[in-house]
Amino acid sequence: MSLLQANNLTRIFGGLAAVSDVSLEINENELIGLIGPNGAGKTTLFNLLTGVYEPSAGTIELNVNGKMKSIGGMAPYAITKLGMARTFQNIRLFKNLTVLDNVKIAMSKNIKYGALTAILRLPKYYEEEAKIDKLAWDLLEVVHLTEKGNELAKNLPYGEQRRLEIARALATEPKILFLDEPAAGMNPQETKDLTVLIRRLQKQFGLTIILIEHDMSLVMSLCERIYVLDYGKCIASGNPEEIRNNPRVIEAYLGEGAEC
Amino acid sequence: MKERGIFNKYNAFWLATILVIFGLLFGLIAAGVINQVYLTVLMGIGINIILAVSLNLIIGLTGQFSLGHAGFMCIGAYAAGVVMKNVSSSVGGVLLGMLIGILISVVVGLLVAGPTLRLRGDYLAIATLGFGEIIRIVILNMNITNGAAGMVLQKVVDWPLIYIMVVLTLVVILNFGRSAPGRACLAIREDEVAAEAMGINTTKYKIMAFVLGAVFASVAGSLYAGCYYVIKPDMFTFNKSIEILVLVVFGGMGSITGSVIAAIVIGFINIFLQSFSDIRMIVYGLALVCIMIFRPGGLLGTKEFSYSALYKKLTSKGASK
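ok -> structure tokens follow
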């Protein structure tokens, strides 16, 4: 049984079908790439899958403890709690909070005390906070940001902000991680490091990762399967080799004689 | 070195601070340095601290621009006023009224929060402004509140009760702010879309902050009724909400310490300006303009005073020397 299944997803804005009739099937521990020209509907598809938009038509089903559960139109926070987390194309960190707090905020699944316990400062508050504190520092270590823990998120350099976004998404303890252009704006060396990081995270946390990316070197080396979107439609899917040689993909996106 | 549990040295410092300030006020009042006039001003400052801090929870910490704070203050004031008139004109009466005011504020707060907190920015401000006025006009048209003439009450609240309520407000709101629910509120202020994507039920936390803020506005209203002889509906108009908002912006949106300082500073500016009543509003306005030019984030920005930060600063300085 697949982990995430989308059937005939459609999203219409006014008269424009940003995503039309797209079906996906994603299995556990897969690394999936989502590529296509700008405006093809990749981010819209992400927004549909993570609950930011409600599908105009079609269904989304997530495997929750062995049962397929329909999540189309559920609130984003509820979908996140079921184990889907994401990063954003244009970084959306909590800029004026510390790096550590950015991670802690995403740990709501782990927080087992309410406002009243916090206000009365019951022993449970101290226990839980100590636990969260440790988990958050551990996660920062995973993405090599331990030394920046107490800095404000907005003061981090760009590449580190991207890594922090990934750490924050991991803090929600996802099964599926959606990365929206994780390498955008990075230089070749940073992209290479990111490739290594993504592969390591997938193994270490047993993640299924779906990423949108324009950097073909990253996509082709990392992804096991690739979906190609163009004008909101899925025009091809398959392994990197198939995609590279698919004439429709070459015409719509990769271009003749592309080296990738 | 990790401090665990409620019995740590920083909390001991805070307890000592609370007691020392209390002792200081007690001494100064007993010695007659603070006379009856100053005492009244001081009590006003205390009530303003409660109002500013509770509004800062909504605006500064959670980022929801509410202009309906005076409405909730009005609920608290009239709840206390009605109980004082009809049950008992005593501190007990004020406390009972305060309790009733809190309950009404929770219910009204939930009613207001549900529909309005879906709105953002300016729209939310207008909607809460409208709700604040609705509350006031409902009270204006009730018989039990004596309508536009207002209620004449006895002064039964003395400064220690206000001091205790100020401390209580600060403890509750600071403890809330520095916890997982408080962090959730900060996340909503910073980026609502990202907060929701990180598993935070934004509606729930917005309502929580709004209702908690409303409760303390109501508490401030009850204290006001207990120590200022007269309450009238036109004391709780939109202007009052703006007055509270000024304190929050002046001190720094997001800084509870800032709100406390702002309430104190503006309280003293007002005393000082009483002797120049003609130009009072002009100077007051100029002071605000200057603050906004030279410290656009307010006096303290989003900084917060804490003994643990002070301790860290001192020890790290000592170490570097």
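Chain A has a mean pLDDT of 91.
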